[in-house]
Write a structure and sequence with these properties.
heterotrimer, A: 261 residues, mainly alpha, MetI-like fold, 11 helices, 0% strand, C: 292 residues, 2 domains, two-stranded antiparallel sheet, 13 helices
Chain lengths: 261, 366, 292
């Protein structure tokens, strides 16, 4: 059918379009450039891959990004799961306000959130650095965590929890043995999403990092002088790791899904 | 109207006592001051149309809904306000609610494990129960690998393995096809008698209830309208609603004229046994079940006391029986069901005489 | 009139507290780090002073005045670019979402993934990649020149088009996914019913698919417009000094020039515009859909 061909072609183009910059990043990590700026292709080399951490401050920045991403993802996922449970399973007053309050950080421009947090820290006379960035990341990850876990909880037969209680499991046992295993995929998805968002974040981090650098902040600083290829290398590595992690996650999900149909 | 047929009056504590049980959801009163005693070892059914409060009542007994007011006593103990896991009751859910991430064995063992039963005992009891429901070979599989009927039996096993003194069933057969449903109905009845546990079965299918139950409560708008043994409430519904709910009722309006007679609008008189007219005067409705009416060709004189003439307007062959619609001159259209015993079948526009015995007539207040 | 025991009532009260306990950590966090800072921003915007002398709250709305006078071009730029990016994003994203929802049957998840995967590359790197792609010596510019769409001395970089391209690209996932989610909820049976009732494919789309995908469209639009309006990275990396947006101003005022009241005023204005839009949306649709 013509429609089918049309849409499939469209999809093909769309995906190609989306992947072009990715390819550029990956390819240019192999660029053997002689000049000052890593802008045009000059030849293939592996030397950047050999010593990716050559640049001063880069390894520290990457480490900061990784740890902040992990911690903020962990905390925001746990807290977000609690909120998602409350939203779906219980009736309470102030539901509309809660929904709105959770939505707003997702909808606020990062500039505004970043600058607002900065103001807070300035007034509270808190030095900007690792902690402030971590706090900020937990903040914006929270909403995304809630949305992700909530989607999973909603699709889950309510009677399963009642059945567990009927079979002598108290609330905690029910949660541990029935609810948690069932929402775990959603929780893990939330964690991965939060990790990616945190690692990737630039604007809010920039406002609140003071002299500490995360990977994006480092890149921004280096970009003025032309992106060093080591950045491409690391970017590619991170990308590869995340893709593999996602692939594994989805594969396991797929197996489990087959088991539940 | 609120005592079961085996009801105690003193010597044995009923399995379930509901006293003034009420549940309101905002403005809507789902269960309205329900008072009911259910004896031990009974297969008890609660039936009624959608929204009558039967499921809500069941859920309150199980502990999944909190009553707005009223008391629930199980074997004499007040359990109002306690959690499901604190009650010696187990439930078979409409959707079965089997834990998808656990094997059949683990599903059935779930309740036992939570109660801290030791391993070898768990093993023995789970094995026994799976044998009872003929599912021993599926113990290592997951729910998704089983058919609907099998899952239903697992749900039953999972509940019974805990030796509850009371089992609640929330329309558990709804999702099964007809043949399977009929099989399961007999199976459930057999298990209940074998295990000797009180079953409370909620369903909207009156035929199912009448097949399985020792005692039935018909609910309407949050209250019990009629309760009793299946035969009793079918043949003597005592209310229009119950009459209509349990099958076709062929109601005809008339006036009570004497201790054993009712005269209909057209002047036609019917004989009714005296016990059916106790306490009733004035305008009433008389009814007779379709299968109790005999059809014979016009002009014949059958020896059943109540007779009418009419013309067949429709006839449907059902296999086991033939359903007729007969238009009478004085009381409208009546439904008649005749077993296909090889006798003559009538066709539309045939003139017939309808007749039935006085004891098969029931009376309901207007 | 009730015959409930004390234990039952106490248990009941405990049960009612549970949701609040669950919500507490997160909500407190949001309160501390979102609500209060936002208030702080408002207050700062009404202050006067400088870094050396300290800031005093005077209720001075001078900063706001300058937002609409001095910075009007940036305000206009922000809104225009955001609008442009949203519209183009919609035109690109909707068909993509549609294609995945209706034309990929078994491979649905795979394609969804393919849409998401590029966004695992850090934001900055993606944007910088566009700088390479749209470079003067690059293939794209050369191609455009050959075709005649670009003059001899034409550039892509440092033009509004580059910024627009960057914006559309970076927020495409935010537009496509919500639309996909609401399209996915449409049962094929509905479209079959429409066809059965004499609707042509185009009419069926207009009267059934489009309205039913509206929540997704609105979500996607909001999630694109809002960040785009506040963006400054795309502008900095792909544009030039002639094109500045609100985001740039805020950034410079906060981090470079350090004029907090002015910066706060601008931030607040941007936020106010956005909140107004969200409120209008919420009034029409309610808050439950927000979190899908």
């Amino acid at each position: 059918m013509r429609a089918r061909v049309f849409y499939r072609t469209l999809l093909g183009f769309g995906i190609a379009y989306l992947f072009v910059p990715v390819l550029v990043v990956v390819v240019f990590s192999f660029n053997d450039f002689k000049g000052r700026r890593n802008v045009s292709w000059e030849g293939f080399t592996l030397r950047h891959w050999a010593d990716p951490f050559k640049l001063p401050g880069l390894s520290e920045a990457v480490l900061n990004s990784l740890t902040i991403a992990f911690l903020s993802a962990l905390i925001s996922t746990i807290v977000g799961t609690l909120i998602a449970l409350a939203l779906v399973r219980y009736r309470f007053r102030g539901r509309a306000t809660t929904n709105l309050l959770l939505f707003l950080p997702m909808a606020s421009p990062e500039v505004v959130m970043g600058s607002a947090l900065l103001t807070l820290f300035v007034v509270a006379q808190v030095g900007r650095g690792y902690m402030t960035v971590l706090l900020a990341h937990i903040l914006f990850n929270l909403s995304y965590a809630v949305v992700t876990v909530r989607a999973r909880i909603v699709g889950f037969d309510r009677h399963l929890e009642e059945a567990a209680m009927d079979l002598y499991a108290n609330e905690w046992q029910t949660f541990r043995r029935v609810t948690l295993p069932m929402i775990m995929p959603g929780v893990l998805a939330a964690f991965m999403l939060a990790f990616a968002l945190s690692f990737d974040d630039f604007v809010i981090t920039n406002f609140n990092s003071g002299s500490m650098q995360t990977f994006p902040v480092f890149v921004y600083g280096a970009a003025k002088r032309g992106v060093p290829p080591q950045v491409n290398v690391l970017g590619t590595m991170i990308f590869a790791v995340m893709v593999i992690a996602m692939g594994i996650f989805l594969f396991i999900q797929n197996q489990r899904q087959k088991a539940q149909d | 109207m609120t005592q079961g047929p085996d009801s105690t009056a003193g010597h044995r504590t009923p399995a379930v006592e509901l006293v003034g049980l009420t549940k309101a959801f905002g403005d809507i009163v789902a269960v309205d001051g329900l008072t009911l005693d259910i004896s031990e070892n009974l297969f008890f059914a609660i039936i009624g149309p959608s929204g009558c409060g039967k499921t809500t009542t069941l859920r309150m007994i199980g502990g999944f809904e909190e009553p707005t007011s009223g008391t629930i006593r199980l074997h004499g103990e007040d359990v109002t306000g306690t959690k499901p896991y604190q009650r010696p009751v187990n439930t078979v859910f409409q959707s079965y609610a089997l834990f998808p991430h656990l094997t059949i064995y683990e599903n059935v063992a779930f309740g036992l494990r939570r109660q801290g039963v030791e391993k070898s005992e768990v093993d023995r009891r789970v094995g026994e129960m799976l044998d009872l429901v003929h599912l021993a070979e599926t113990s290592k599989r997951k729910p998704r690998q089983l058919s609907g009927g099998q899952r239903q039996r697992v749900a039953l096993a999972r509940a019974l393995v805990n030796h509850p003194r009371l089992l609640l069933l929330d329309e558990p057969l709804g999702a099964l096809d007809l043949k399977l449903r009929k099989e399961m109905q007999l199976e459930l009845k057999r298990i209940q008698q074998e295990v000797g546990v009180t079953f409370i079965h909620v369903t909207h299918d009156q035929e199912e209830a009448m097949t399985m139950a020792d005692s039935i409560a018909v609910m309407r708008d949050g209250k019990i309208e009629r309760m009793g043994e299946p035969v009793e409430i079918y043949d003597d519904p005592r209310s229009r609603f119950v009459a209509g709910f349990l099958g076709a009722s062929n109601l005809m309006e008339g006036q009570v004229t004497g201790p054993d007679g009712v005269t209909l609008a057209g002047g036609h008189g019917f004989h009714v046994t005296a016990d059916k007219l106790v306490g009733l005067t004035g305008t009433v409705h008389v009814g007779v079940r379709p299968e109790k009416i005999h059809l014979s060709p016009e002009g014949s004189s059958p020896d059943h006391a109540n007779q009418l003439s009419g013309v067949v307007t429709d006839s449907s062959f059902i296999g086991v029986s033939t359903h007729y619609l007969v238009q009478t001159r004085s009381v409208g259209e009546l439904t008649v069901v005749v077993q296909n015993l090889g006798v003559t079948r009538f066709a539309p526009s045939d003139s017939v005489t309808l007749s039935w015995d006085p004891e098969h007539t029931f009376v309901v207040a207007r | 009139m009730t015959t409930r025991t004390d234990a039952a009532t106490r248990a009941d009260r405990r049960r009612r507290r549970v949701p609040y306990l669950l919500l507490a950590p997160g909500m407190i966090w949001l309160l501390l780090f979102y609500v209060i800072p936002m208030f702080g921003l408002t207050i700062t915007s009404l202050q006067e002073g400088s870094l050396e002398q300290g800031y005093v709250f005077t209720g001075n709305i001078g900063s706001y005045v300058s937002v609409f006078t001095t910075y009007l071009p940036q305000l206009r730029n922000s809104l225009l670019f955001a609008l442009g990016a949203t519209v183009i994003g919609l035109l690109v994203g909707y068909p993509l979402a549609y294609a995945i929802a209706f034309y990929t049957s078994r491979w649905k998840s795979l394609f969804l993934l393919l849409i998401l995967v590029p966004f695992l590359v850090p934001f900055l790197l993606r944007t910088l990649a566009w700088r390479v792609i749209l470079a003067d010596q690059g293939a794209v510019v050369s191609a455009l020149k050959t075709v005649g769409l670009l003059g001899e001395n034409g550039r892509m970089l440092s033009t509004g088009w580059a910024i627009l391209a960057g914006l559309v690209y970076n927020y495409l996932a935010f537009m496509t996914l919500p639309i996909y989610v609401s399209l996915d909820k449409i049962e094929p049976a509905l479209l079959e019913a429409a066809n059965d009732l004499y609707a042509t494919p185009w009419t069926a789309f207009r009267k059934v698919t489009l309205p039913m995908s509206m929540p997704g469209i609105i979500s996607g639009t909001l999630l694109t417009f809002i960040p785009a309006a506040g963006d400054y990275v795309n502008v900095e990396l792909l544009g030039n000094r002639n094109w500045t947006m609100m985001g740039n101003v805020i950034q410079s005022k906060f981090l470079v020039i350090i004029d907090y009241p002015a910066a706060a005023a601008i931030s607040f204005t941007l936020m106010a515009i956005i909140v107004t839009m969200v409120v209008i949306y919420v009034r029409r649709v309610g808050t439950e859909e927000l979190l899908t």
